[in-house]
């Protein structure tokens, strides 16, 4: 039994450390996945007020959970404070199993984010993995008092402290500089237009246009094929329209909903992705009108003017960035939905160097100082 416990400790410890490191490479990815869960639960009526409140702390939850996952994995390997960490591991794996089980049984998620975007697992695979991990951890839990530390206390504490410091440093580094390993579809070398296409042989979602109206204080929905017989503009007040999925497909394009429109609402996606020569896509999520990045951007702005390189400022929120629009009137300002911006830019702002739709390079906000020298060798 002692040998079995040792093997289980190695399996659990290595998996927790590996899972934590993969997620630490992109803590925003886990935060966005948490927000997806919060949104689904809020829409289903489960404590919507609390879910909306927690949505604002998703990144903090992500950082804390990743740190704990790595530290717990290290603690299991060295056998430090097992009566405590076996309890914490059991609570954590029960929570993970609930999440992956919900993702699998509800059918509302394509992936659970267990290993980030670098190793996407289906909800079913994640659920099965967590069931096995739960069994392993339950066995460790029952024998927790018989597990002896593998190293002297001082060395164990030092290793765990260093693992905590490293996990914190790694996450805050990538939040400023972009992930060490970019596993997202907007990675260097990818052609955006190609990544917007459905994979070969894939079956797309079947959708129907659905309209939402207000009628005498009540919200009603109907499709274009079953308008109510008493429909009249004086009775029905338009709220929105959306595409309702009636049959789920088996795949989706790596880059979806990436629609670039001018301030006047004209779709300019294809035009921007086929521009000859080089251009810069400046992605701005939410409000980025203040910050030290503007000093570096002024240097980038001057460098592009000398090289004849166009800058396209792409944002989901023009209102909060009005000061930037007023300052940089010579830039081409483009509107885009926030979801593809989150995928393209893990820092806000971020800059992509584009050549006819292909991403040649990308920089997080902390690396803007390297862009002028990179542009100096470009012949546009």
Note down, in words, how this protein is organized:
- The chain has 380 residues and is an alpha/beta fold.
- The chain folds into 3 domains: 2-177, no CATH class; 206-247, no CATH class; 269-376, Glutaredoxin (3-Layer(aba) Sandwich).
- Helices cover 48% and strands 15% of the residues.
- The protein has 13 helices and 8 strands.
- The strands form 2 sheets. The chain has a 5-stranded mixed sheet with strand order 6-5-4-7-8, with helices on both faces.
- Strand 4 (278-284), helix 10 (293-307) and strand 5 form a beta-alpha-beta unit.
- The protein is globular and about 70 Å long.
Keywords:
globular; alpha/beta; 380 residues; single chain; Glutaredoxin; three-stranded antiparallel sheet
Q: What's the total count of β strands?
A: 8
Please give the share of residues in helix: 40-55%
Give Rg in angstroms. Answer: 25 Å
- Quickly give the structural class: alpha/beta
Total count of domains: 3
Separation of termini? 68 Å
pLDDT averaged over residues:
88
Number of helices: 13
Poorly predicted residue ranges: none
Strand content: 15-25%
Helices and strands, with pairings:
Layout: H1 2-24, H2 27-43, H3 48-55, H4 58-78, H5 82-106, H6 123-142, H7 153-177, H8 192-195, E1 206-215, E2 218-223, E3 236-247, H9 269-273, E4 278-284, H10 293-307, E5 310-315, H11 322-327, E6 332-335, H12 338-344, E7 350-355, E8 358-363, H13 371-376
């Amino acid at each position: 039994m002692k040998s079995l416990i040792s093997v289980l400790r190695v399996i659990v410890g290595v998996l927790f450390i590996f899972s934590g490191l993969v997620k630490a490479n992109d803590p925003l990815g886990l935060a966005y996945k948490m927000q997806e869960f919060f949104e689904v639960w809020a829409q289903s009526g489960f404590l919507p007020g609390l879910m909306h409140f927690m949505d604002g702390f998703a990144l903090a939850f992500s950082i804390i959970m990743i740190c704990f996952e790595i530290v717990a994995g290290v603690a299991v390997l060295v056998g430090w404070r097992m009566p405590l960490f076996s309890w914490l591991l059991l609570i954590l794996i029960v929570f993970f199993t609930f999440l992956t089980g919900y993702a699998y049984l509800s059918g509302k998620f394509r992936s659970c984010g267990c290993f980030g975007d670098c190793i996407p697992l289906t909800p079913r695979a994640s659920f099965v993995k967590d069931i096995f991990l739960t069994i392993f951890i339950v066995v460790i839990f029952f024998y927790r008092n018989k597990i002896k530390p593998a190293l002297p206390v001082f060395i164990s504490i030092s290793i765990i402290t260093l693992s905590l410091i490293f996990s914190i440093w790694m996450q805050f580094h990538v939040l400023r500089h972009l992930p060490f390993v970019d596993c997202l579809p907007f990675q260097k070398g990818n052609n955006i237009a190609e990544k917007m296409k459905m994979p070969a042989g894939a079956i797309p979602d079947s959708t129907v246009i659905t309209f939402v109206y207000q009628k005498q204080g009540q919200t009603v929905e109907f499709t274009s094929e079953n308008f109510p017989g008493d429909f009249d503009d004086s009775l029905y007040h338009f709220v929105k329209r959306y595409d309702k999925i009636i049959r789920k497909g088996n795949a989706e394009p790596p880059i979806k909903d990436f629609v670039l429109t001018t301030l006047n609402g004209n779709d300019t996606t294809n035009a921007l992705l086929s521009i000859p020569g080089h251009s810069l896509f400046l992605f701005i999520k939410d409000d980025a009108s203040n910050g030290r990045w503007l000093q570096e951007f002024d240097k980038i702005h001057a460098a592009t003017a000398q090289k004849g390189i166009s800058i396209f400022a792409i944002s989901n929120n023009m209102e909060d960035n009005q000061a930037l629009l007023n300052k940089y009137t010579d830039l081409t300002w483009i509107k885009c939905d926030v979801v593809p911006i989150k995928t393209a830019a893990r820092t806000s702002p971020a800059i992509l160097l584009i050549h006819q739709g292909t991403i040649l390079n990308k920089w997080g906000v902390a690396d803007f100082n390297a862009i002028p020298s990179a542009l100096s060798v470009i012949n546009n």
